[in-house]
Amino acid sequence: ELKDLWRGILFSTSSIGIWIVAYILNEIHEEIAWLQVTSRFLLLIMASIFVLAFFSISSSQPLLSQMSLRKKEPREFETMGQALGIPDSGLLLQRESALVIDPNEPLDKLLLNKRFRQSFMAFADSCLAGESVHFYDEVHELAKIPVDDPVRRIYMARHIIEKYISAGAAMEVNISHRSRQEILTTLDLSHPDLFSNALNELVQLMKMNLAKDYWSSMFFLKFKEEASMRTIGHELDQMTGWNFSPRLSSVHGADDPFHQEHPSKEFGHNSHDLDLHC
Fold first, then answer.
1. 40 and 144 in one domain?
2. Is the pTM of this model over 0.85?
């Protein structure tokens, strides 16, 4: 955009300079016929260019909007998954099916649900031990990237390593030295099982250190209440979504088998005629 702006300025300056020179030559050298013809021709050409340029630029689109010199503010993303365009990254679907929570179910199975994972993550953060759940969430987002897209997988893997695996990282997780070295020394950052061993270790730690306290916490009670409310709301939506057939409203009285007005009158007339005959 800056180059285009400088080109426009240079072209405008050159055009104005040529117009001024042609005008001066036309006024000074009146005795030279060919110079008069050339200078007037240049004046006519430059005037046509100016008129064409003036009417070709829309007045509704000022120059600042076409060639902006202001630096565009970078778009901010809450998670790396959103920055990489991972589907439904960081989003809670309104129509997500309600999960029936059973504390006897394996924790890794329950963590697959986005709403439960966020509730469990909030509880872990309140205990100042949320790095394991955050790591699980990021690895879960990584699994959404197709294996045949190594570029995005590598970007996501580097982000996870720098945030959770590297020594002194901002949210360094507590994993074994062997698992940490396997990740740090790997030659294939796009491998689908890159964080599998570390993830299994952290799930076991969460089961021992966080899961038991979570079931008796206010976070779990709030999650159960919200899940029940979503279930009731879903059932109400289904009930209000029923459509009754409009065919019954178009049935006339004579065709309605439940319409008793005409048969009763007819029965009255028949009985009266029967009495007369008798």
1. no
2. no
